[in-house]
Amino acid sequence: MSLLNTVESAEPKKIAVYVCHCGGNISDIIDVKKVAQTLSQYPQVSIATEYAFMCSSNGQDMVINDITNQGVNRVVIAACSPALHETTFRNALKRAGLNIYLYEHVNIREQASWVHKQDKDGATHKAIALIKAGVEKIIRQDALDEIKIIANQRVAIVGGGIAGMRAALSCARAGLKVSLFEKRSTLGGNLNRESLIYPTNQTAQSVVDQLGSEVKNNPNIDLLLNAKIVSVNGFAGSFQINFIDLDSKEQTIGSGVIILATGFDHYKPYEGEYAYKTSPFIVTLPDFTKILDQSAQPKALLYEGKTIKNIAFIHCVGSRQMDGVDTPLEGKNLNEYCSRVCCTSAIFTINNLKIKYPNTGIFDIYSDMRTYGLEHESLYEKASKNDVLFIRRPLEERPQIEQRPDGTFNVTSTDVLSWNEQIEANVDMVVLVTGMVPSDISDLVDNMKLPRSTDGFLQEVHLKLRPVELANKGIYIAGTSQGPMDVIETLNAANTAGVKAVSLLSLPEILMDPFIAVVDDDKCTGCGLCISECSYDGALTMTDKIVNGKTKKVAQVNGALCVGCGACVAVCQPRAIQVAGWTLDQFEAMVDAIAKE
Amino acid sequence: MKSDLDKQTDVLIVGSGIAGLQSALDIADSGLNVTIIERSPSIGGKMISLSKVFPTLDCASCITTPKMAAVANHPRIKTMTYTEVNTIRKTADGFDVDVTQKPRFINEDECISCKKCEQACPVYVDDNFEYGLGVKKAISIPFTNAVPQLPVLEENHCIRCGACARVCPKDCIDYLQEPIPQTIKAKAVVAATGFEIASMGIKPEYQGETLTNVISSLQAERLLAPHGPYGKVLRPSDGKIPDSIAYVQCASSRDQSIGIPYCSRVCCMYAIKQAMLLAGALPLGEITIYYMDIRAFGKGYEQFYAQARSMGINFVKAKVAKISEDVDRNPIVRIDRQEEGSIPQDITHDLVVLSQGILPSRKDFFGLDITLNEFGFVQSNSPTYSPAKTNINGLFVAGVIKGPKDIPDTIMEAGSAAIDAINYIRENL
Ligand SMILES: Cc1cc2nc3c(=O)[nH]c(=O)nc-3n(C[C@H](O)[C@H](O)[C@H](O)COP(=O)(O)OP(=O)(O)OC[C@H]3O[C@@H](n4cnc5c(N)ncnc54)[C@H](O)[C@@H]3O)c2cc1C
Ligand SMILES: Cc1cc2nc3c(=O)[nH]c(=O)nc-3n(C[C@H](O)[C@H](O)[C@H](O)COP(=O)(O)OP(=O)(O)OC[C@H]3O[C@@H](n4cnc5c(N)ncnc54)[C@H](O)[C@@H]3O)c2cc1C
Ligand code: SF4
Ligand code: SF4
Ligand code: SF4
Ligand code: SF4
Ligand code: SF4
Question: In the CATH scheme, what architecture does the domain A266-435 have?
Fold first, then answer.
């Protein structure tokens, strides 16, 4: 096998093209029969066919069968996005004994059927052009070897909340070494509090303590409190994490995998948002939980010298925000998402309040009550039995808060439950049921080039196929750094990140795609233009080499550091440097094929 | 199946829905051996029968079939389909699991999946994969993407006419096949037996069992699926394209009176999803969702809900009191519309979908003394430490067996059960 298709291979190329219907996703728009028919006429294509689901067992078996029995040695699959199923088909090729890089995936779903729903002929035509380009590319492709990286058997975990601790324990128990980085001086993150949590009715602290004591006693876990991560370099199997330790010393630790468990922050309303900060009696839910915990008064809640007889809870503060209705925090986007835990948390807190101070009058203003969990609905029922007055506001309306001269508040809202009547509640305190925002990790996001979704949380590759993986290989997410979750959900997510780390490191080597720069020593003139173009330190250097019996200066690629961006290719006049799997010949042939259509 | 070695495994997984499949892959990828026991003729569980899945709207097959193929081809995973688990016994070094492989009445090693038997068979039976909406033959491969691609002969329906045996090119048909009982030794078990939806008759006021144009949410999934029973959205009574479709939310959940007080957690989202798919399939259709609360709490779900509203789907906050039908078999929905006065209204639709509640698929537990909660779902014994653990050491649970949940949450639990099983074996055996 050569690294680059510089040598024409001797065996005749036999290309098969498979067009997938994607169960209608493609075939409802694109005339797949016509596409297969057209491609079957294309020079060099020996088989062109279509099928309902290429990714199914039947579909994969078709490919394997054509490779083993028909001598097919180049495969083009025109289907959904390669992000979804490239691995699926590579595995099929592996089973058939064909080099996995002799397959080209053409995306005719996201790039044709989905975007040209109104123009079926156009979409069909585009699909044909794209597939022809794929054929031209794969004709010019020879087998490539995967790059093997020796995997460091250590996992670096960022964030010492319950997600980070759970992931650390799961990895450590499986025999891996773990470095657990926590920026604060204590473990436990947002659960470092005395108050009770649903659904188990235990203190948040007890959850933290159980995991925390095990973390501290596990010999495989190095706990790094007060650690500030400065930068992260490297790649799956061999990351370097540079950080400042508790003695303000700069240190570096190597790891094979990174798990990000950086958690969330409570939403902080801006001044004036639902009258926040205009009075000490407008508080957020996490603040209120503390107030309730600390109140030792026997009969009624006493706060700031005032007896609290009536309270209004307002749901969805800082969550489920709507364009034209809500104002985002300065410099931020609207938080369109639901924070998932706050309905149940509010109801749970109200029930606890009712146990401590049964005579408190409570108005709960919400729009949808999202007590979705198995045990959550009964909390909601209990609150109803506890005489909580539920006021259901229309989706687009927000309650109004007005402070009266006596220091109490008039909270007004339309109530859908009583036929859109305007309800006015006179209360001593207003609790803003604030949700979650991602914790501020912009430095890590910039440094590690992490993908984030529009809501600001870290973005997994695919919610169902690869739910804890980031696009950056070897980096996983755990817990609320991904999006709102409760404790149980967070622990499950963390364990899932743990199992992925354990699987990836179960073999001593990690395989990476060999799409990196390759230098043709014969053609390289040693001009060095490429080196100044490369922005990855150490990826490209100049060395003396003996070429055809003569010593000359040539560019040399460090396979582990090159990312295959191709910046060097653009400046090399003699075309001496190319990216394997994506050569200039291939690009030109693809463009020609599309232009001809 | 033949050698003794085959009767031993590291982890035995009961159920091959998305929970079982994902657990199997996670465990096997880390180097252990896995045996999956599935009682249906194909792996894939409920998910393979769904249309598209929220919130990404990928076709369910596109997500499930690759996982099924990955499991079927994994060198460390063995699958036993059409096999019932009878009892699970805890032993000193793990578990003894008694299973019975049910007869397919074909020779599994010889069959080439040509479907000639299916074409020749004269007997039509209800297709349970289509949840009763379509028919199949008395001998048939369960569905297009089934894994394995092996036909099953349904003993109670077969008239022993011999047609299949005559056409089978490999002489596979074996009317005399017997069930094969066997015992498998496993070091750990992951139970992932999933769910059933509540029966259509559970709430008599809705007449779900008698009214033809009142269908279940799973049937609606099939109507919308790429290879569905009719190939397009038609209503069952007369094959008419429905213009007006209604969803009844919490149709058998959050309801003390029928013994399902909890929220089924996925029906708000799947109703929204189905409504969006219907809006795509029937551009002139009117779609109404009668609901109490829209519980769109997951990542990207609220945005999905907003998208549905902007597509013109009607969300009506109302309780449905009862359903009847008119002479043309159009369902009439009586609603108590909390938004506009207390007078109940009767509204006629062409088709009504009941968002049925989710029930555990079994309440007895293979003879194990496992702790179930009051609703019959398996109770974790350390929810805030490692939620997949149960009171039985070495037995872990994943997916809807623990309570209603959607696919993303199920997949997270699958990983959680997997790592617990891996570490349990590492530390104890
Ligand atoms: C108001 C409210 C009430 C709730 N009540 C309940 C309840 O009753 N029951 C329940 O089940 N759930 C409840 N939850 C949810 C629960 O708090 C979360 O599920 C849980 O805290 C998530 O844990 P985590 O580890 O993902 O994140 P966190 O608890 O946020 O932990 C993240 C950790 O990472 C650290 N970190 C962040 N960035 C860095 C960095 N760059 N370097 C190093 N360390 C870093 C942080 O310091 C922190 O310690 C509630 C949530 C809210 C908002
Ligand atoms: C109408 C509807 C639409 C839905 N749409 C979506 C959606 O769009 N997106 C989404 O995220 N979620 C959706 N869901 C939820 C989704 O279906 C579940 O989250 C998921 O299927 C749960 O998988 P599971 O593996 O836990 O259970 P199941 O899929 O029920 O799998 C359990 C498996 O165990 C087998 N089994 C049971 N008992 C035994 C036994 N004794 N021995 C051997 N095997 C046994 C069963 O045959 C089955 O194969 C929907 C649910 C419904 C009802
Ligand atoms: S959980 Fe409830 S309060 Fe929180 S954002 Fe969602 S709907 Fe609003
Ligand atoms: S491909 Fe990019 S990273 Fe690699 S050597 Fe060229 S410029 Fe550097
Ligand atoms: S013998 Fe039974 S299964 Fe076979 S064709 Fe006849 S009825 Fe069908
Ligand atoms: S005819 Fe025979 S070989 Fe063909 S599918 Fe039926 S049993 Fe299998
Ligand atoms: S998910 Fe929605 S429809 Fe289903 S029970 Fe809960 S509230 Fe009702």
Answer: 3-Layer(bba) Sandwich (3.50)
- Please tell me whether residue A444 adopts helix, strand or coil conformation: helix
Ligand 2 atom with the shortest distance to the CA of B51: 8
CATH architecture of residue range(s) B103-176 = 2-Layer Sandwich (3.30)
Question: Where does CATH 3.30.70.20 sit in chain A?
Answer: 516-579
Q: Look at residue B4 in the predicted model and tell me its pLDDT.
A: 57
At position A310, the amino acid (one-letter code) is N
- pLDDT at position A563: 85
> What does the H/E/C string look like for A507-554?
CCEEEECCCCEEECCCCCCCCCHHHHHCCCCCCEEEEEEEECCEEEEE
Mean pLDDT of A465-493: 96
**In the numeric block, which tokens belong to residue B150?**
């092996």
Residue B11 confidence (pLDDT): 98
Predicted confidence (pLDDT) per residue in A148-178, tens digit: 999 999 999 999 999 999 999 999 999 999 9
Give the chain B residue whose CA is nearest to the CA of A89: B66
CB nearest to B403's CB, from A200, A374, A484:
A374
Measured by CA distance, the residue closest to atom 6 of ligand 6 is B117
For domain B199-357, give the fold: FAD/NAD(P)-binding domain (3.50.50)
- B31's CB contacts (< 8 A; 6+ apart) are A506, B76
In single-letter form, the type of residue at position B328 comes to D
Site to substitute for ligand 7 among B255, B268, B320, most atoms within 8 A of C-beta = B268
pLDDT score for A538 = 84
Confidence of residue B230 (pLDDT cuts 50, 70, 90): confident
In one-letter notation, the amino acid at residue A380 is Y
Residues of chain B found within 8 Å of residue A29, distances taken between Cβ atoms: none
Report the nearest atom of ligand 7 relative to the CA of B250: 8
Rounded distance between C-alpha atoms, residue A460 and residue A280, angstroms: 40
Q: How many CB pairs under 8 A join A and B?
A: 225
Q: What number of other Cβ atoms are within 10 A of residue A445's Cβ?
A: 17
Q: Report in angstroms the alpha-carbon separations of A97 from A11, A65, A67, A93.
A: 16, 11, 8, 6
**Angstrom distance (rounded) from CA B374 to CA B377:** 8
Q: Which of residues 131-160 of A touch B (CB under 8 A)?
A: none
Report whether A435 contacts A336 (CB < 8 A): no
Rounded distance between C-alpha atoms, residue A477 and residue A375, angstroms: 27
Q: Which fold has domain B7-98+179-194+361-428?
A: FAD/NAD(P)-binding domain (3.50.50)
pTM of the model: 0.93
Spell out which residues of chain A touch residue B377, defining contact as CB-CB under 8 Å: 374
